[in-house]
Structure formats: structure tokens, C-alpha cells
Amino acid sequence: MTVNEIIKKALTPFGIPITADFFGGGAKEYFTFNYADDRAAGFGDDEPLQVVAYMQIHYFAPMEKDYLSIKKKIRKALFNAGFTYPDVTDATVLSDGIRHLVFECEIENEDELSEI
Length: 116
Prior knowledge:
Layout (H helix, E strand, L loop, with lengths): L2 H9 L6 E3 L9 E15 L2 E16 L5 H13 L6 E4 L7 E11 L8
């Protein structure tokens, strides 16, 4: 399963639109995600034994929405899906009127090492 598939599977139960990189829809609440970094780790016989994907998952919601409960649920869903326990940064720009939380975490990306 790819990292994108893992993220989508973890967040689908929230019933909120999810897309990689940029969201082009009109929803007021949505997720986007992107790779912050993607690199090989743990080498043996001059070959990588694993690839680690460092991910940013973004949650956008109206400012008036109570976000503390969903923040904990998102963090737990990502952790239960195999990610490290996410760090959360509030990247909200008050003048935009949209809450923006960034969940940063990493996961071993076994799909990268599979044969094509």
C-alpha cells in the first residue's frame, strides 16, 4: 500500500474530502497532504533497506468549528495507521478566517522498495 493510500484510508472515516497536494473544491473543511521529504534509510550491501516518508497532513476548517476533539482523533488515526505520533502546528492565518492545522509525521515507505 502506498503512503497516499495509507493516509486516505486513515482519514476517510472522518467523512471530509482528502486530496494530495492541493484542494480545488469548494468545501469549507478538508484535508490535503504532501511529502516534506522522502529518503532512504538503513543501508545493507550498498542498498537501502527502507525508505522513510516525512509527511505533512493539513486539516482546514472554519474558524468557528471546535477543532480540539478532531485534532486528537486525526492524530490518533494517523498513529494507528503506522505513522510516528504526529507533531501538530497551528498554521492558521487569522485574516483568512480558516483554521489550518499541520500534522507532521513519518512512516516507513515499503512500497518504494517493491519491484516495479
